[in-house]
């Protein structure tokens, strides 16, 4: 398969001026609809071309689980790239941005949920060192299939 041409992109912070673009991006990429509160309470990074947002990642750091004796971990709530911009390494750049940001923290694990039939996302995360560590039945309430794999990577 020939490599797609290089797309010039840049990282940027989510601001009040581009928050709506993030919401539109997520509506077009993800089967789950997030409430407005989601967009004001998460740590966001987006990836854009010179004119508009083409990919974004939203994540949160969670407290350690004393019962399981784990360190703090990062939960990836959303990570997506618009279809025409896939294959250019943008998703990898977004994921690597998160991992690099964690290098100076005590976060030792990243995890996320992926719908069981989303093979493209599952393969993406596996290529980046994530493993399926479990499956949650009926995780999603308004989409089919409702089951979700839990993918995890230890740093």
TrEMBL record:
Top-level EC class as recorded in UniProt: transferase
Reaction catalysis annotation: N-terminal L-methionyl-L-phenylalanyl-[protein] + acetyl-CoA = N-terminal N(alpha)-acetyl-L-methionyl-L-phenylalanyl-[protein] + CoA + H(+); N-terminal L-methionyl-L-leucyl-[protein] + acetyl-CoA = N-terminal N(alpha)-acetyl-L-methionyl-L-leucyl-[protein] + CoA + H(+); N-terminal L-methionyl-L-lysyl-[protein] + acetyl-CoA = N-terminal N(alpha)-acetyl-L-methionyl-L-lysyl-[protein] + CoA + H(+); N-terminal L-methionyl-L-seryl-[protein] + acetyl-CoA = N-terminal N(alpha)-acetyl-L-methionyl-L-seryl-[protein] + CoA + H(+)
InterPro entries, A to Z: Acyl_CoA_acyltransferase, GNAT_dom, N-term/lysine_N-AcTrnsfr
GO CC terms in record: NatA complex
Keywords in alphabetical order: Acyltransferase, Cytoplasm, Transferase
EC number(s) reported in the record: 2.3.1.258
Domain N-acetyltransferase: 9-155
Compartment(s): Cytoplasm
Any one Pfam family match given in the protein's UniProt record, by short name: Acetyltransf_1
Biological process (GO), any one: mitotic sister chromatid cohesion
CDD domains cross-referenced by the UniProt entry: NAT_SF
Gene Ontology MF terms in the entry: protein N-terminal-methionine acetyltransferase activity
Listed name of the protein: N-terminal methionine N(alpha)-acetyltransferase NatE
Species lineage: Eukaryota, Amoebozoa, Evosea, Variosea, Cavosteliida
């Amino acid at each position: 398969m020939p490599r797609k041409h290089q797309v010039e992109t840049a990282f940027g912070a989510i601001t009040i001026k581009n928050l709506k673009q993030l919401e539109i991006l997520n509506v077009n990429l993800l089967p789950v609809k997030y409430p407005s509160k989601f967009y004001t309470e998460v740590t966001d990074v987006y990836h854009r071309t010179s004119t508009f947002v083409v990919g974004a990642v939203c994540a949160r750091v969670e407290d350690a689980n004393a019962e399981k004796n784990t360190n703090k971990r990062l939960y990836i709530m959303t990570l997506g790239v618009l279809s025409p911009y896939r294959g250019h390494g943008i998703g990898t750049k977004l994921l690597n941005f998160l991992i690099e940001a964690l290098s100076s923290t005590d976060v030792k694990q990243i995890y996320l949920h992926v719908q069981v039939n989303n093979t493209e996302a599952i393969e993406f995360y596996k290529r980046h060192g994530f493993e399926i560590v479990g499956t949650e039945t009926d995780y999603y309430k308004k989409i089919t299939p409702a089951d979700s794999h839990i993918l995890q990577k230890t740093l």
